[in-house]
Amino acid sequence: MSPSNRRLLATATVAYIAVVVALTTLKSFYRIGYLWEPARQRARELHLVPLDSLGQGSWFAPLFDYGGNLAFFIPVGVLFFMWRERIGPAIAWAAALSLSIEVSQYLFSLGRSDIDDLLFNTLGGAIGAVFAKWCGPRFYRVWMWLAVALGVVFAVLVALGPRLGNPELVKDLDGASSPASATTPAV
């Protein structure tokens, strides 16, 4: 890989990991529209029973959670694979990133640490690494530019913050009035 492609890969990797870290551990410090309530993201929970949310209530929640974690880490596996073009190390790095996120969430009360997140993130990283190997180097620049573009789009969304939604239209799924509409002035 040429030096310019290595720099692009480094930029893409940092950009995508920044998005992953921001969306998994830092949601209590910013908001994008009214997708979540930052105050509710300060939590310390530990779930160590694999697949424990299956069969509890809605079928959509586990599908969204497991599928989301899987999809979220496919680009991680792709980017990590491109560094050494070896599947094993890419999976190991994806697992290490996921484990560090889960530990940080628990230690600093920044989210809900769940063994399922670790499992599905690692599986997503594995799928991404295999996919990158299957597609080959001809697509590397595409993956890198997509990761950089996602980082830029995410930064813009964070900068726009609560201006991306109308707090008057926020509905709490639990049936209570939304804290966002009660505490946030209209934009």
From TrEMBL:
Pfam families: VanZ. The chain crosses the membrane at residues 66-83, 90-112, 118-135, 142-161. The keyword Metal-binding does not apply. Residues 14-134 form the VanZ-like domain. InterPro entries: Teicoplanin_resist-assoc, VanZ-like. The keyword Transmembrane applies. Keywords: Membrane, Transmembrane, Transmembrane helix. It comes from the Bacteria. PANTHER family: INTEGRAL MEMBRANE PROTEIN, MEMBRANE PROTEIN-RELATED. This is VanZ family protein. The lineage of its organism: Bacteria, Bacillati, Actinomycetota, Actinomycetes, Mycobacteriales.
